[in-house]
Amino acid sequence: xxxxxxxxxxxxxxxxxxxxxxxxxxxxxxxxxxxxxxxxxxxxxxxxxxxxxxxxxxxxxxxxxxxxxxxxxxxxxxxxxxxxxxxxxxxxxxxxxxxxxxxxxxxxxxxxxxxxxxxxxxxxxxxxxxxxxxxxxxxxxxxxxxxxxxxxxxxxxxxxxxxxxxxxxxxxxxxxxxxxxxxxxxxxxxxxxxxxxxxxxxxxxxxxxxxxxxxxxxxxxxxxxxxxxxxxxxxxxxxxxxxxxxxxxxxxxxxxxxxxxxxxxxxxxxxxxxxxxxxxxxxxx
Amino acid sequence: xxxxxxxxxxxxxxxxxxxxxxxxxxxxxxxxxxxxxxxxxxxxxxxxxxxxxxxxxxxxxxxxxxxxxxxxxxxxxxxxxxxxxxxxxxxxxxxxxxxxxxxxxxxxxxxxxxxxxxxxxxxxxxxxxxxxxxxxxxxxxxxxxxxxxxxxxxxxxxxxxxxxxxxxxxxxxxxxxxxxxxxxxxxxxxxxxxxxxxxxxxxxxxxxxxxxxxxxxxxxxxxxxxxxxxxxxxxxxxxxxxxxxxxxxxxxxxxxxxxxxxxxxxxxxxxxxxxxxxxxxxxxx
Amino acid sequence: xxxxxxxxxxxxxxxxxxxxxxxxxxxxxxxxxxxxxxxxxxxxxxxxxxxxxxxxxxxxxxxxxxxxxxxxxxxxxxxxxxxxxxxxxxxxxxxxxxxxxxxxxxxxxxxxxxxxxxxxxxxxxxxxxxxxxxxxxxxxxxxxxxxxxxxxxxxxxxxxxxxxxxxxxxxxxxxxxxxxxxxxxxxxxxxxxxxxxxxxxxxxxxxxxxxxxxxxxxxxxxxxxxxxxxxxxxxxxxxxxxxxxxxxxxxxxxxxxxxxxxxxxxxxxxxxxxxxxxxxxxxxx
Amino acid sequence: xxxxxxxxxxxxxxxxxxxxxxxxxxxxxxxxxxxxxxxxxxxxxxxxxxxxxxxxxxxxxxxxxxxxxxxxxxxxxxxxxxxxxxxxxxxxxxxxxxxxxxxxxxxxxxxxxxxxxxxxxxxxxxxxxxxxxxxxxxxxxxxxxxxxxxxxxxxxxxxxxxxxxxxxxxxxxxxxxxxxxxxxxxxxxxxxxxxxxxxxxxxxxxxxxxxxxxxxxxxxxxxxxxxxxxxxxxxxxxxxxxxxxxxxxxxxxxxxxxxxxxxxxxxxxxxxxxxxxxxxxxxxx
Amino acid sequence: xxxxxxxxxxxxxxxxxxxxxxxxxxxxxxxxxxxxxxxxxxxxxxxxxxxxxxxxxxxxxxxxxxxxxxxxxxxxxxxxxxxxxxxxxxxxxxxxxxxxxxxxxxxxxxxxxxxxxxxxxxxxxxxxxxxxxxxxxxxxxxxxxxxxxxxxxxxxxxxxxxxxxxxxxxxxxxxxxxxxxxxxxxxxxxxxxxxxxxxxxxxxxxxxxxxxxxxxxxxxxxxxxxxxxxxxxxxxxxxxxxxxxxxxxxxxxxxxxxxxxxxxxxxxxxxxxxxxxxxxxxxxx
Amino acid sequence: xxxxxxxxxxxxxxxxxxxxxxxxxxxxxxxxxxxxxxxxxxxxxxxxxxxxxxxxxxxxxxxxxxxxxxxxxxxxxxxxxxxxxxxxxxxxxxxxxxxxxxxxxxxxxxxxxxxxxxxxxxxxxxxxxxxxxxxxxxxxxxxxxxxxxxxxxxxxxxxxxxxxxxxxxxxxxxxxxxxxxxxxxxxxxxxxxxxxxxxxxxxxxxxxxxxxxxxxxxxxxxxxxxxxxxxxxxxxxxxxxxxxxxxxxxxxxxxxxxxxxxxxxxxxxxxxxxxxxxxxxxxxx
Lengths: 285, 285, 285, 285, 285, 285
Fold this sequence. Notes:
CATH class of the largest domain in chain A: Mainly Alpha
Radius of gyration of chain A: 22 Å
Strand order of the largest sheet of chain A: 1-4-7-10-13
Low-confidence stretches of chain A: none
Largest sheet of chain A: 5 strands, parallel
Oligomer: homohexamer
Distance between the termini of chain A: 60 Å
Strand content of chain A: 5-15%
Number of strands of chain A: 14
Structural class of chain A: alpha/beta
Number of domains of chain A: 2
Mean pLDDT of chain A: 87
Shape of chain A: globular
CATH architecture of the largest domain in chain A: Orthogonal Bundle
């Protein structure tokens, strides 16, 4: 067996040789922990009390809010800038230009928060109305993994739409790990969206989901082809308003549209469009 | 773009306007972190050494146990009282009455712990006997997510049965996030219960599960109708003793009963009762 | 109701009575937190910067690496020794023999790390090429749960193969909890392995998986029989090179082989072998 | 030797028997750590950056300041209320009255902070001008123990003057431990006060110290008589403006006055008044 | 200039060359932080609430006390054993004999605690009666550095008297650093002992101090000769009952005795015995 | 009374108005906590095991040492650069020049460490030989505040001599707070230096102290005049080889020299030179 020094040498050589999976030289790569930290602060900004036992009166709320906004802007701008510099490292874009763009985007995210809160209010209402077991708005917000997944998605999607690389994906994978719900930051999701139970749900990058859609655990809204050259195409389905999709159903393909008011049964496998008002169930022996 | 002060103002206005998703004024709402803290202490009370490297001799064990019981009673009574006050905020129930009831329930949970340990012992035995890969009781207790999910369920169910709001759900969603196993605190589950792998399992609020039942990953025991007005009905199936349900099976409906000794195959979709001793498999092409 | 002292007494009696689920007397049982700590250090050794924001120059990297290796060797040898002592507690193997074997195995794991890095490089390439949504190697390494699951598996499998008890399972359940991907440490997995989304994937103890295999969320590679007496048999399928298995498919049985280049469609249920180049899809109404 | 249980019993009996040194029953006693925490926050409010590396721009400073003020008011009001309740426990004063008074005093301390900062500015100037080794205002503020002692004294004295029990003494003993400078919160100290080196300095409860006074290490401004019945009398000396007292000098007595512009030499022992402009030195062989 | 590797090499060589100030090889040396940790636990055992905000009712107090006793016994026995092994490393005393002796001594310290509490009660009374500024027993216990110094001394002295090496000195230097009061663990101090202010007090190894003695800041009770060969002699003075020694006085020599009821004035230098009832003051110009 | 917002405004105005005691705008000011952190790392580099319970074998020691050196160089260079930029902010010196100089000085400090260790070895020997109560080298290193003060001084003095501003003073005030020993970083101190007890010792900026000098608590080596314009003069005494200075002695003046082998008695006041071999004692009534 090699001695310890030889083992360390072998590892160091391996860092040099395996291009592409060696982070040691990249200061500018965004730090996952900082991004998640900022994300938790954003959650607390949206629902004060979501992460910690805060006990604020009106007077203090203004300062606590401002302080939190400051902290988010500082951290998230830094990490976003790193993500941009890293992604653009072979172009001529200057690091100061990245900083300006990063800060502008983060500030516009803060500006968007009241609108995101408004949408989440509709999502929470959808959960309250759609789940007989739900007892109160507060229970939904505090304990429904589906709502946390949507909350994070609405933030990640905003950043993705504004051209920020890497950060949105770090956010979506964080909440994927926590809830088992995997929504790609690119997906467009309208109001009153409800995911029940949620474990195993996959929603692809180019999905478009309408208002008042309800989805159960294990549902996949995926692509048929996974050829790399199609990554700019719409590869994932469109779900129109007021559709319900039961557990384990799989709906695939960029031109597949599930029409308004349809119900897709559990474990259904669907690769073609369904007209509005469809009722599609497996026939089971 | 707005300046920072205007953004903070907009957020504060949003807190006022969006009724129901604003926690800032509610001191009395239970704190998720404290509940989870108490839950981890309960786990360590049930299996000393479960969460930390404890190294206790007989003498010390008494004091460590007493100290832990004290801490749990203090924290959990407080959080339970908050949950009750919050839930009953529009009634005339007094906060001191809530405290009395909360403390009584938490103490009765402590009193129940030896019985809960006894049941978990049967669950661990079921895992040891039911999984060829299981090597020892200790491996099962320390590393099987299914056992952790049942442990938490047996605690949460006791509180739910005693009328405690919110706290049981916070507990069950905690272990759902950790294991991907979603058991509603309302479900009644008998001894020798074994969930293998477990990711994606959903067990609904009004399920009744007998002795010696074995369930694999992705199994749903759910409701057919999710209409809000039925939330007091039995909406989820009954599983009798000695039933095995393989991965991905879906069993729905409050009047659906799977009879004693039945086997339900993988991915089976079942919305009607199965007689005792049934063997139900999908026919696959 | 009993008073507090009586409750504590009842718990203590319960610790004595319920043999097998009482850890209080076992100092030698490995500590989950220490094992996970060492695992995270191993991750950072494989991908510097994976867990923390490290900012190392060439000079410092050697010392930081050596320091990390030392820490891993110290902690993991200790926990491995405990696992061996515990498992062999009824044999005549001496605790010093356990230490020697534990240290030798941990050192050989360190020696294996460059090879593990090389394999993970192929896995990351497979993800980059196989997912149209993947933008860069770094995004894959930092945010794909599938890659983290394989990373941990390659470590756990090495230890399992070298006869270390308990520790590999603690590692695999840790990453199962984080990603929803449950790979038994016994499974043999070749290079260029890609798991997309991953939630609900189960790969059994005696699986053999070839090069360039791609697996989607909810896939089960399981056993038909779970009788305890068969735990030394090959109970799980063999997947040959260049096979793709879509979401929710279930492939069972130790003599089931999916031939080279086959494609198994979503939700397919397969308990017999498939010839090379097969295309197996469900027929859906 | 007793066994462990008997030892614990003996301790518990001792808690019951030794009246007056048993805190176990007193919830309302102020917590030293919380008081010191609030004190450190007050230091950072007075000199942003004093305790931590803060990096604030103008915008953020307002929120960070407001947030800090809120935190101080919350913690210090609570601890002050406890101190008052404890001190008044044998009177009929109500706990709600204590709260009101505590909050009012803490708020008036916040209101006084700009004035305290102004005085500390004069103290720092006195140090800068009085010590040839001092290179800059910043060095004085960051590293002179004398300045930290005065900072804490000016806060503690304000609370003492407003009738708050216990809290001022906890603060003054904290900085005594840190700097070796023991100033009783009751002492009245005017502007431009400079203590150099400081270890061993003692300034008694009823001292009155003028402007521009300079004191060296080991100086005692103490009482002659320490009879309990004189605790309402002025027992400690008066030091008029522009006096310098060198290391180790001892000045005692409530009617002892050191007149304006005097210089008291090292190790001098003085129990009678000195006229303005005195020069008092020991004669040394 | 050397490069980094050469610098590290030079340091490593220096570790080898400078015998006696290199700890790297000594596992068995007691750890300062653990000793101080145990000391703080002992303080909290003596005065519950001394170090933390504890809120215990009668029921819980028993368990918290037992738990604390256990923790102290475990940690302090370990560190004491290390100190003994280290000190006896050139003798034939076995490490297991050290363990037995260490444990026995630590247990007898626990057994002594009620007696130590009783003595500290007299010390606190002496402070309350002797300082006009003292308002209550609680203020004395919580904020008088003199009392903390005596508390630690009474523990350290017990261990020293029982032959424990190193540990008592680590304890006394800890409280010396905190209070500026330096009492050697060997000094024998009777009840009702009061040190006011205290900074700079030095009490030597072979001092004997009677009941009801009062000492002010800067008092030295020291040795005349510091020749190494006299380390077994009584080198420090004897102070009989009811003596008061004012600030800065220096009393030296092993045969120097200050007789009962004497008063020694500030800054007095005394190297000969004083008859009972003496009044010794400096004459000051 | 003002409301909270007005109070915050008043504080913010005060930050603007009181020039010179407002740190909020100065990012470049060195951070006290980082400097102390680096200092503690330096202590552990000099005496491995000084601050923590390290358990290193030969192999690991090299990496741990290298890692620690790296960390110190990174942190201390950064803080030193800040100190230089801040001090030179009104000159034309460039920040990059500061960085270069800072790094060079920190590296030369690392290079000097073996020599500093050698000197500390002589200091520890002096303590061991000079204090009858000292039992072993290890006891001296671990528990004598005098040795810690000299250790820090030898580091701070090296930096001071190399022209680094602010950092040396932050270091010396840290250890002053911990030990009550105040040595200005400018003082030149030769080998075999021993400070016993130490509380209240003050050693001025331009002191020169020879080999084998022994100093007791409360000794001042100070200046006569403290006029600012003399800050470049030698203002503090010279102590030649083999001098002993007993507790509380005061020696003042830049031209005062205590000749080789002299003994200065306790509480002596000396402002003129003493010939070699002098014996100077107070005459006490």
